[in-house]
TrEMBL record:
GO molecular function, one term: U6 snRNA binding
Pre-mRNA processing factor 4 (PRP4)-like domain span: 44-96
Gene3D superfamilies membership: Pre-mRNA processing factor 4 domain, YVTN repeat-like/Quinoprotein amine dehydrogenase
Gene Ontology CC entries for this record: U4/U6 x U5 tri-snRNP complex
A Pfam family reported for this protein in Swiss-Prot or TrEMBL: WD40
Record keywords, A-Z: Repeat, WD repeat
Gene Ontology biological process: snoRNA splicing; spliceosomal conformational changes to generate catalytic conformation
InterPro entries reported in the protein's UniProt record: PRP4-like (IPR014906), PRP4-like_sf (IPR036285), WD40/YVTN_repeat-like_dom_sf (IPR015943), WD40_PAC1 (IPR020472), WD40_repeat_CS (IPR019775), WD40_repeat_dom_sf (IPR036322), WD40_rpt (IPR001680)
WD repeats, residue ranges: 252-293, 294-335, 336-377, 378-417, 418-450
Protein name: Pre-mRNA processing factor 4 (PRP4)-like domain-containing protein
Amino acid sequence: MSNEVVSYDDLREDRDYESGGVQVGEYLQQMENKRKANLLLVPTDDDAVKAKLRSLGEPITYFGEDKADRRQRLVDLVMNNNIDLAANDVEMGEVDDDDDIEDEEFYTPGSQELLSARQFITTFSLEKAQARISNQLKESSVSMTKQLTIRRGINDRVKTFELGGSQLASTRPISYVTINQNNTDQILSGSWSGNIKLLNKKLEILKEFNGDEGKISGLDWSPTTPNLFVGSGNTISLWNTESEEEHPTATFNGHDNRIVRTKFHPSGKYIASASFDQTWRLWDVETQQQLLLQEGHSKEVYTLGFQNDGALLASAGLDAMGYVWDLRIGKSIMILNGHIKPIYGLDWCDNAYQIATGSADGSIKIWDLRMSKDIFTVPAHNKIVSEVKFHDKVLASSSYDGTVKLYSADNWVTLHTLEGHSDKVMSVDLTNDYIVSSGWDRSVKIWAPE
């Protein structure tokens, strides 16, 4: 008998004994591979496995592949290519972290002006929120009996609203009307002919503004400067009703398509705009500089609105989706997903945590930020809901069915239906004393208690 000592490598490399149908060399090779695989620093966490695959230039997942399959693919890849994970672990970890940030945390660096705006909005909204919460606490201390009496009084008064006047204010459909809440004797109307008109409560035309050749689709009064307003069509224009100039005091350029809505921030320092270019943007009123270009919608952005405190903005559009954006951090914090057709109208309730959206599906949905979902669906109209507006304890809606409807903002019961337009109603706004609406019949109508 030979005293020669047979080494592990000799058996693996030089001999091909058969044992049970399996060659000894192959068997030993399999055992060695298994031993090496057990020693490999292959992570077990699925996110770490994906990161390793990405750093090696491999797809992070295949169709139908589960976590175990993915890890085994990484093991096979390392074994077949003699990759030493132990030697490259630190380096690969660094690459993985960078790749994760680039692929999964995509962002566009903001300007110093945007940072300053976010800081201002944070401070401003905190002060507004404190004042709002203080008022809500006072209201909550009022007895339920008194609260019900007040609400019944509001509801009973709303039911008495009737048509009080009408004015043909353009040669084309009047797409938007808005009341100056700082001076409720002033009303703005904008039409598809490109002109904007200033009216009083008697619907007398006081002044006309012509500066946009496109369809006027959005108007909003400044909350801090009573004579200042913004209009939108092909461009965004800032106007002063007391100016003798025939041109806007400022314009904002940047959108690549029609601008549908423009809204002032509650501070009066910023303007937000919604456009058919599938973005909404934030502008500085003083410098006319674009501070933020926000993407996210898959189709045209049609409407938007600021929360009363100014911390949040909600946008919605023809993709039937809505988003709530936190302006302080630049992220979407809630998705309004429930309508089956495009959203045309949106407004915030005074309580700052509820939003109403009106859709081409004929419904109005009420969304609650505290529960991150819609809490009520109002079967409002049988055609497109073109606009929704809150005021005090009342919600108003306009529709292509030719009507304006009023609802209780407590239980969403329909209080009154206003009929008088001969065609589609495109816009509505309201204050304590009256309601104003406009539509395809080229008229502005006013509704007041009998």
